[in-house]
C-alpha cells in the first residue's frame, strides 16, 4: 500500500500501477488539502487507472481517527473528536458511535473504503505517552467496548476498520516515527493489554496493524513488524485473527534507522503480514518490490505464502464499498 505525493495522480504512482500492479493506496492531508471535489477526482482517477490496467478495484485507506489524527478534517470536512474526548463525554458509547458514523460518511463521500482505525492501545496510567489523546482510556474493558462499537458501526457502512497498534503500544513514550521503542513489561501484562484486540477480532474487524516496537516479554529480539511470535503465534493462532495484517509505515525511523527497507519488507512478510505500508517515496516501493521478487526466486517467499495473503486481501475487497461503484462516488 503506497502513498502519493500530492493532490493529483503523479507519474511515479501511475508507473507503479501500470508496470508493477499496485492497487492499494493510503491518503494523507497532502492529498486532501484542496477539498472534497479534488479528492474525489483523485480517487476516481486511481480507480479508473487501476481498472484500465486490469487490476482489482483499489483499496484506498486513510487515518481518520479523530482529534489530531484526522486526514480529512476542517476546513473542508467536519471535525471528529479524539478518542480521549469521546470517552470522557457524557455519553461515551454514543460519542464513539458518532465518531465512526461521521468517519464513514466523510470517507464514503470521497470513495475511500478503509479507515486505519480504531486505535485499541491502552493508555499508560500516568498518561504521558505520546498516544495519550489517541487512546480510548486506561481500562481494558472500556477500550474493548469502545473498539467494539467503532468497528461494528463503521464496517456496517462498508468501510473496513484496522485495529492498531498490535499488541498494544499505550505504554510507549517515544514515537516509532523517530526511533525503535522497547517495552519491557512482563508477558502477562502485555497479554492482558491485547484484550481490546481480542474483542475487535470477535467484532469482525477486517484488518489489524502492528507496530515497530520491541516487546521483550513476547519477543526480545524483534519488533512486532518482524516477529512471527507476535504476528503468527499470538495474533493468528492463539487469538484466531483471520483478516488482513498490515505493517505500519516501513519508512518510519523505527525501521529505517535499523534495516534496509527491502530487507524489512521481506522480514515483515515472512513474519505474517499481508500488506506492507510505504507511505511516501515511490523509489522505496520499487526497492521493496525488487527485494520481494528476489526473495521469491530464492525460495524465502513461497507461492503458498503469497497466495494466502492474496486470499485474505481478496476477502477484504469483497466486503468493502466498491470505490468505482455509483453507490460510493
Structure commentary:
The protein is α/β, with parallel strands linked by helices and 329 residues long. The protein has one domain: TIM Barrel (Alpha-Beta Barrel). Helix content is 43%, strand content 11%. The protein contains 13 helices and eleven strands. It has helices at 11-20, 29-32, 36-52, 83-87, 92-110, 140-155, 187-192, 195-202, 228-238, 253-256, 261-271, 282-297, 303-318, and strands at residues 2-3, 24-27, 59-62, 64-66, 69-70, 114-115, 160-166, 182-183, 207-210, 214-215, 244-246. Strands 1-2-3-6-7-9-11 form a seven-stranded parallel sheet. Strands 4-5 form a two-stranded antiparallel ribbon. The chain has a two-stranded parallel ribbon with strand order 8-10. β4 and β5 (69-70) form a beta hairpin. α1 packs parallel to α12. It is globular and about 50 Å long.
Task: Give a short summary of the structure.
The protein is an alpha/beta fold.
Annotation keywords:
329 residues; alpha/beta; TIM Barrel; 7-stranded parallel β-sheet; two-stranded antiparallel sheet; 13 helices; 11 strands; 43% helix; 11% strand
Strand content: 5-15%
**Separate helix tally:** 13
CATH class: Alpha Beta
Write down the CATH topology. TIM Barrel
Number of strands: 11
Specify the helix fraction band: 40-55%
Mean pLDDT: 93
Which structural class should the secondary elements be placed in?
A: alpha/beta
Query: What oligomeric arrangement do these chains adopt?
Result: single chain
CATH architecture: Alpha-Beta Barrel
Question: Which sequence of strands runs across the widest sheet?
Answer: 1-2-3-6-7-9-11
- The H/E string reads EHEHHEEEHHEHEEHHEEHEHHHH
CATH homologous superfamily placement: Glycoside hydrolase, family 3, N-terminal domain
Radius of gyration: 19 Å
Amino acid at each position: 500500500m503506497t502513498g502519493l505525493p500530492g493532490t493529483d495522480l503523479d507519474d511515479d504512482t501511475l508507473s507503479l500501477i501500470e508496470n508493477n500492479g499496485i492497487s492499494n493506496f493510503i491518503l494523507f492531508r497532502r492529498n486532501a488539502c484542496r477539498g472534497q471535489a479534488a479528492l474525489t477526482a483523485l480517487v476516481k482517477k486511481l480507480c479508473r487507472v487501476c481498472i484500465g490496467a486490469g487490476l482489482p478495484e483499489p483499496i484506498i485507506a486513510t487515518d481518520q481517527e479523530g482529534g489530531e489524527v484526522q486526514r480529512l478534517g476542517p476546513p473542508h470536512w467536519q471535525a471528529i473528536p479524539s478518542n480521549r474526548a469521546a470517552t470522557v463525554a457524557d455519553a461515551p458509547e454514543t460519542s464513539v458511535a458518532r465518531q465512526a458514523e461521521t468517519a464513514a460518511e466523510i470517507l464514503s463521500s470521497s470513495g475511500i473504503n478503509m479507515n486505519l482505525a480504531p486505535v485499541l492501545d491502552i493508555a499508560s496510567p500516568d498518561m504521558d505517552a505520546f498516544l495519550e489523546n489517541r487512546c480510548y482510556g486506561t481500562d481494558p474493558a472500556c477500550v474493548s467496548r469502545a473498539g467494539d462499537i467503532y468497528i461494528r458501526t463503521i464496517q456496517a457502512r462498508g468501510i473496513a476498520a484496522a485495529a492498531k497498534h498490535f499488541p498494544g503500544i499505550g505504554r510507549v513514550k517515544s514515537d516509532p516515527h523517530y526511533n525503535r521503542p522497547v517495552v519491557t513489561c512482563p508477558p502477562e501484562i502485555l497479554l492482558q493489554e491485547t484484550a481490546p484486540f481480542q474483542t475487535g477480532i470477535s467484532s469482525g474487524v477486517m484488518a489489524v496493524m502492528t507496530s515497530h516496537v520491541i516487546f521483550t516479554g513476547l519477543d526480545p529480539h524483534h519488533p512486532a513488524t518482524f516477529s512471527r511470535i507476535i504476528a503468527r503465534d499470538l495474533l493468528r493462532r492463539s487469538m484466531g485473527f483471520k483478516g488482513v495484517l498490515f505493517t505500519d509505515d516501513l519508512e518510519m525511523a523505527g525501521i529505517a534507522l535499523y534495516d534496509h527497507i527491502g530487507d524489512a519488507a521481506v522480514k515483515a512478510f515472512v513474519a505474517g503480514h499481508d500488506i506492507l505500508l510505504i507511505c511516501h517515496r515511490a523509489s522505496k516501493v520499487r526497492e521493496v518490490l525488487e527485494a520481494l521478487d528476489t526473495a521469491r526466486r530464492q525460495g524465502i517467499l513461497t507461492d503458498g505464502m503469497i497466495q494466502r495473503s492474496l486470499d485474505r486481501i481478496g476477502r477484504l475487497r469483497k466486503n468493502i464499498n466498491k470505490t468505482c461503484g455509483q453507490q460510493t462516488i
